[in-house]
Amino acid sequence: MAETFTEYLARYSRPDREYPVIDLDTAGQQRYTMIVSYAGGAKKAIVQFMGLAADGDNEHLCMDVHAFVDEQVARSSVFGMENGVRYEAFDQSAPGRSHGRPAVRGVTVLVGVQADSTPQP
């Protein structure tokens, strides 16, 4: 299993492609909005990146994703994966579905310092 950023890219990326890098640490640029379009523009996502607590010890990155299909607001569904195990993000009470899964109109991904939620033996 890949444990570092470099190991992950070596294992899962396509070596014949370059990936865009967005640096949020530029002075005065704590927020960045990007539009991702595919399927001939019929499907789009607005992805807003925010550097939170940018100068503090608990610095982390927040990514808000807002999806659209044929110019209409669409719902997004997310789940987490670790060591081949899927961790559901929403229960059945979510207000809608995407790909048959519980979904909402906006999702937020928080990236920060890793901490286990259960004590280790």
Q: Could you describe the 3D structure shown?
A:
This protein is mostly beta strands and 121 residues long. The strands form 3 sheets. Strands 1, 2, 3, 4 and 9 form a 5-stranded antiparallel β-sheet that branches. Strands 5-6 form a two-stranded antiparallel ribbon. A hairpin with a 7-residue loop joins strand 2 and strand 3. The two termini are 22 Å apart.
How would you concisely characterize the structure shown here?
This protein has one helix at residues 5-12, and strands spanning 31-38, 43-52, 60-69, 72-73, 79-82, 85-88, 96-98, 101-103, 107-111. The protein has 121 residues and is mainly beta.
Mean pLDDT: 81
Spatial extent as radius of gyration: 17 Å
SS content category: mainly beta
Tell me the helix content: under 10%
